[in-house]
Amino acid sequence: MDFDYTDKVKDLQGRVTAFMQDYVIPSEEPISTWFAENRDEWGAAPMMDDLKAEAKKQGLWNLFLPEDSRGAGLSNLEYAPLAEITGWSPTIGPEALNCSAPDTGNMEILSRYGSPEQQEEWLKPLLAGDIRSCFSMTEPAVASSDANNIALRIEDDGDSWVLNGRKWWSSSALRRETKVALVMGVTDPEAEVGKRHSLVCVPIDAPGLTILRSTTVFGFDDRHEGGHGVLDYVDVRVPKSALLGPRGGGFAVAQSRLGPGRIHHCMRLIGMAERAVAMMTERAKTRVTWGEPVADQGVFQTWLADARIQINAARLVVLNAAFKMDTIGNKEARHEIAAAKIMVPQVARDVIDRAIQTFGGAGISSDFPLAYLYVTARYLQVADGPDEVHRRSLARAELKRVPLLKVM
Amino acid sequence: MDFDYTDKVKDLQGRVTAFMQDYVIPSEEPISTWFAENRDEWGAAPMMDDLKAEAKKQGLWNLFLPEDSRGAGLSNLEYAPLAEITGWSPTIGPEALNCSAPDTGNMEILSRYGSPEQQEEWLKPLLAGDIRSCFSMTEPAVASSDANNIALRIEDDGDSWVLNGRKWWSSSALRRETKVALVMGVTDPEAEVGKRHSLVCVPIDAPGLTILRSTTVFGFDDRHEGGHGVLDYVDVRVPKSALLGPRGGGFAVAQSRLGPGRIHHCMRLIGMAERAVAMMTERAKTRVTWGEPVADQGVFQTWLADARIQINAARLVVLNAAFKMDTIGNKEARHEIAAAKIMVPQVARDVIDRAIQTFGGAGISSDFPLAYLYVTARYLQVADGPDEVHRRSLARAELKRVPLLKVM
Amino acid sequence: MDFDYTDKVKDLQGRVTAFMQDYVIPSEEPISTWFAENRDEWGAAPMMDDLKAEAKKQGLWNLFLPEDSRGAGLSNLEYAPLAEITGWSPTIGPEALNCSAPDTGNMEILSRYGSPEQQEEWLKPLLAGDIRSCFSMTEPAVASSDANNIALRIEDDGDSWVLNGRKWWSSSALRRETKVALVMGVTDPEAEVGKRHSLVCVPIDAPGLTILRSTTVFGFDDRHEGGHGVLDYVDVRVPKSALLGPRGGGFAVAQSRLGPGRIHHCMRLIGMAERAVAMMTERAKTRVTWGEPVADQGVFQTWLADARIQINAARLVVLNAAFKMDTIGNKEARHEIAAAKIMVPQVARDVIDRAIQTFGGAGISSDFPLAYLYVTARYLQVADGPDEVHRRSLARAELKRVPLLKVM
Amino acid sequence: MDFDYTDKVKDLQGRVTAFMQDYVIPSEEPISTWFAENRDEWGAAPMMDDLKAEAKKQGLWNLFLPEDSRGAGLSNLEYAPLAEITGWSPTIGPEALNCSAPDTGNMEILSRYGSPEQQEEWLKPLLAGDIRSCFSMTEPAVASSDANNIALRIEDDGDSWVLNGRKWWSSSALRRETKVALVMGVTDPEAEVGKRHSLVCVPIDAPGLTILRSTTVFGFDDRHEGGHGVLDYVDVRVPKSALLGPRGGGFAVAQSRLGPGRIHHCMRLIGMAERAVAMMTERAKTRVTWGEPVADQGVFQTWLADARIQINAARLVVLNAAFKMDTIGNKEARHEIAAAKIMVPQVARDVIDRAIQTFGGAGISSDFPLAYLYVTARYLQVADGPDEVHRRSLARAELKRVPLLKVM
Question: How many whole angstroms separate alpha carbon A187 and alpha carbon A199?
């Protein structure tokens, strides 16, 4: 048991930190201005290309992908503290390093389950940062928290699959660079529960596929990431070769993206919470009420101490889950992942909320990133499975566990 | 002691409910669409005029103003349950009845402290719903939670006051109908603490007054209410007659708007929380996970029960504060108001958050009003004095209180 | 709607307060000492007789009983603020006024459902404060939160009922003055659910009835109230006339004690929380850390403010429930009662916990009453139905409610 | 970074677990019965001697002491998971292995700062488990949370120190085996703050030292550990050689016991929380309400999942603090220790409270250990420095920290 980062990780932390400090943080204001001035743009601001080029040059690219041949070959445990640092600027940092959702998860699926043709067509340009992608799973008409409810039909029609249904929360769908949607639907309605769903790759410009609009998140349009698309699939036809992974294996395949995806989100949330702490600390030192800097006041100090306690605990939970993924596999580590997925957004939310309160009106505005960070944390209590689903899984596992000691 | 509404109130509740059901709720979607299609409009959608005309016709107008001669002559206790009902649709209901902030508070100040000229120029058209107004108090450069920090200078220069400084969170400043800003600033920097600040009325088109932009609230631009203006005052010159209330009496005068204003916000928040409950209940009945309607599941039922408990308690707290305002005066009732101001936004926030979680992705989007309601509740933990300021006042009062029994 | 106490209530508040201040509070230390020195005594300390005599003399007797003929004829709304005051010293005050559980509930049942013989034998001496009683419902072998689980058999055997089973949490069973147990059991196992249980009166010295021992509550033995008896019923035979209320009507009859009983507990909890506030305020003024009285420190002031907010809200909830019991009846008011039963112990617990933390080591000891008060509040989250049962009822009622406005 | 226990630790875990299962758990009931039947006994039940002999025989002795020569030579990181296991039965397990407070801390001080004579007289028999000891620091008359308030006078009088003052919370003082008190007091009232206090060793039977009584903890008398003594020191005279560590260095010396002591408490609390989970899980499987085992109900599952999340996080926090103590030293690790000291009791309290609620009346009684476990967790929010003191230290450290990235 050893709680110190390895030298390899410390070196990478230093390099990612320097990249964030030198390139990403200074880009925040110009990128924000660009979006304000280009109200119809859905996608990266132009300066993103420079950031990506610089990251590539520095070898800070595809750090998320554990495979040596395609990614940086880092373990989850090695990647976690780096993803955390990118979370300090979550709308820019991760994408600059080609480590942003939903592409990361899609690359993982394509890397593991994609056919050579699918890998050539979609994975290669994704790894290069040339295109983007979306993941189309959630549906507006049903409670997607129970994935068995997913109803989009993927019918077997000779040489083709034919898709009919409506999806939403297909993040990044509205970006101009997005070329493909990975779509979950029912191929085998008569099969047993758990074997009915499959995944297919659908070109975003496929006839019959219409991006109706984007949803907002607490008022934010999330244009920087291409929004959250509401997608209509009407007789969308793709060739049989578009099937991604085994027929009826949709849930198993999707898990290969959801496990790492969840933990990546948690890693970044730690960074967001750290940013909130850095900001509230700085602010409290410079604001005075009733003759005393806020930083010297007991109520603020309680917030700050609790923030530190919670963040440090949450980080350990994430690192431990990453370690388990590396050592016993994503599937066996699913309860550690679920625990992190429940705990970390709550911690981030609490911490950021106190930072907002420290800032007062400035905190709830978008003059500072706190309100956006808060919303991101809240969003993740719903996305990738709401807390309640993960609690249910954890409880059921706990009920099966044999306790260390027999006491009753 | 009697916890039943009077017949007069019950009658008004019925009428306001009918107005909301027949006119306001059906306007939500068209107004929302109008704002989506008119992205540069700051102010009421055109259908608001019809709603106001109808409300006037039905005698549901200026219900907030306790004075017989100008308003509806309702006590705070009578108005509270009506304001609650308007809170079910907070971006439309209150304005339709000419009961929306910040105008209500401004009308209260003008009614109590305005000179006949000020009343003729500003109060009369406000009461008629012909113009709107803003209140310019908070400043970006200081911690406004300690009002003594307010720094905008109002200098005595012969026949004029000359204003220099920057304000923000001047809500409604960007509406085209807005004609006047009530501005708090320092007229007497050498006076003792508490006697340095005064209020003046400044025409919104006064030379030197520039509306720089609006701030957002968690991503929402609040265009329906004319945003939250960031206002630059550079050598803004108004005549001496623009002084509102006594020189050096700015805080006392402002209190006459803040007390009722805070409790009005609380009343409406109760209605917002009730709407969230109505929505989550309905949603839970129609969504099924693992073979069981969400409404039948224990976790949801816990949320629902807690929502009911919290809302009913919060309503009593608000009604009691309103009763105290009516019977012992706003000043003596300040601790009851402060308690409501702390408790009710927290309750509303909790309740609405659970409704959001019940809705999942739909809850955090703007396809439903929940995300906006949540943000409104959160906003009120900062606006009109952050919770921490009110807790400080309450604690100091408590420390002076003689306990019922001597036990130590 | 009127939130002021009536003059009648104010007068009674003054008299009960004076009684508490002059007689009850000064008795706390000697009674506590008496119990420490008489470690085998289960029941009232000798000074209790004097207190009861004094209360009777002052006309402060049986205030809880709404019936003119037998009790003080106060409504629930009138009694609530008086019960609150007795809660400042909960182990002495209520009993001194003959207003302590479980006798109050038993008197209510006997008064409403008792036969003339039962009233003569048990009710009359209870009203006089000459004997005590217990209520035997909860069983160790089943989850009593679902009352249908109650399994003690009451068999019909000719002229007699024959009881077999085990009960616990029969509070006051171990007092020497206790003469009768009201026992819930199954008389009609084949009847439909809800009609299987009945109540019988069993003399505490009935052959076959053994008081095995008392349970503690978090380490407290509660000897002052006669503990919490574990009772074994083995072929306990009582005459047919011992049936209390209709056969099969056990639940309905029990409700007549549980409704008022729950709200009485809540009333007293408000008083306990007030005592905690009075104590923490006083303590904080006299203790200094890092050069500043604790009372002047922000963290303490936050606790104090929140205590005030929570207590005042909880009191309103209790008063409103009492009002509803008076105006629409206990049955129709059951949801208001349930809400109070959930909210008030939680509030009391929070408030008292902060008082304990203010006292530090002194708070968790029994040198001060805070630890006992805390445990009493915690106890009430389990007693008379755990919170979860009441939440379930509230949620089911809420699901049936028609919302004020139709919004979905 | 490695989150797996070493083989050495796994082996020890297995051995301690077996000892607990085979010897300690089966002793719980007879020891509890012995205390019930011997109401005036303060100290170990007779069966404790056998347990200690067995533990010694198995080499499970003094595991807490990192020094090879005297203790087991385990690092804090190695000891932590073992202490956790002893926490499953906290009134028996730790003492059986000679690892119970306050002796462990006293042995650490004596081992590090004791003179050869002190070590011979006190340390040696403590290590052998032949005597016990107490630590006399907290005082009833002042807020001990600010240690500078400690006022007991230790006057320099020729060859002697003369002690005058009153202490309380001197745990274990009432045990018959207790021979020595380590006493903190003021030797140098004129020195600068932080250099005024010193420690001396005082034989428990020293003339002038009177054990007045024991305080309770939420009703528990804690006789098994010798209670919590209230000690009067009146002209207690000890030789100059009784000084423990340097004169004026009392705080620094005490820290050498408080750091490890705090983390040991946290370790054991993890075990207590695990026991609560094991118990609630088992209970929920066997109790049925409304036709469904409690274990299958959503509300219970939420509690269980949250318990698992919180405990696992808390364990990581403790292990990381232990690792830091081993690698950077107790002083540098003080913030990690403080964080654990705040977080873990809160987690344990939450978890145990839910277990109590699952058990209902059985949970608050002493028929099961849950109520005692709860009180132990609550106690630790006050003992060894209340949470508020540790939050203050953490916040002040945080305010000095340089953030990873400069963002404001």
Answer: 9
Q: Cα(D99)–Cα(D318) distance, rounded to whole angstroms? A: 17
Q: By the CB < 8 Å criterion, does C403 face chain A?
A: no
Question: Minimal Cα–Cα distance from B297 to chain A, Å?
Answer: 11
If you classify domain A132-249 with CATH, what class do you get? Answer: mainly beta
Using an 8 Å Cβ cutoff, are B47 and B38 in contact?
Answer: no
Q: Which CATH number fits domain C132-248: 3.40.50.300, 2.40.110.10, 3.30.750.80, 3.50.50.60?
A: 2.40.110.10
Report the chain B residue with the minimal C-alpha distance to residue A367. Answer: B215
- CB D25 within 8 Å of CB D92: no
How many angstroms separate the CA atoms of D283 and D297, rounded? Answer: 13
Report which residue type is found at A18. A
- C6 Cβ under 8 Å from any chain A Cβ: no
Which residues are within 8 A (CB) of D29 and not within 5 positions of it... i.e. 6 or more apart?
none
Short-list D161, D205, D175, D192, CA closest to D95 = D175
pLDDT tier for residue D208 given thresholds of 50, 70 and 90: very high
pLDDT band of B14, cuts 50, 70, 90: very high
* pLDDT of the residue at D408: 84
User: Residue B386 has which token pair?
Assistant: 């952050």
Alpha carbons D312 and D316: distance in angstroms, whole number: 6
Tell me which residue of A43, A33, A80, A34 sits closest to A260, measured CA to CA. Answer: A80
- Residue A158, chain B, CB below 8 Å: the answer is no
Alpha helices in A329-369 (DSSP H): 334-359, 361-364
The pLDDT of residue B68 is 74
Q: How far is CA D311 from CA A231, C355, C375, D371, in A?
A: 42, 27, 24, 18
Query: ipTM of this complex > 0.90?
Result: yes
Q: Is C102 helix (H, G, I), strand (E, B) or coil?
A: coil
Do C238 and C161 meet the contact criterion of CB atoms below 8 Å apart?
yes
The answer regarding whether domain C7-128 maps to CATH 3.30.450.40 reads: no
Task: Provide the shortest C-alpha distance from residue D165 to chain C (in Å).
Answer: 17
Out of 1.10.540.10, 3.40.640.10, 3.40.50.720, 3.30.870.10, select the CATH number for domain D7-127: 1.10.540.10
Query: What does the alpha-carbon distance between residue B81 and residue B400 come to, in Å, rounded to a whole number?
Result: 33
| Any B CB within 8 A of C298 CB | yes
Closest partner residue to B316 among C305, C308, C317, by Cβ? Answer: C317
Percent of chain D as helix, strand, coil, to the nearest 5: 50, 15, 30
Residue D12 near chain A (CB below 8 Å): no
CATH T-level fold of A251-400: Butyryl-CoA Dehydrogenase, subunit A; domain 3 (1.20.140)
**Dmax of chain A from CA atoms?**
78
Domain borders along chain B are: 7-128, 132-248, 251-400
B51 close to B43: Cβ distance less than 8 angstroms = no
Burial per residue of D137-174, b for 16 or more beta-carbon CB atoms within 10 angstroms, e otherwise: bbbbebbbbbbbebbbebeeeeeebbbbbbbbbbbbbb
Touching C: B residues 78-97, CB under 8 Å:
85, 88
- Run of H or E residues at B397: helix B387-400
- pLDDT given at position B120: 97
pTM for the model: 0.97
Residue B363 near residue A207, CB atoms below 8 Å: no
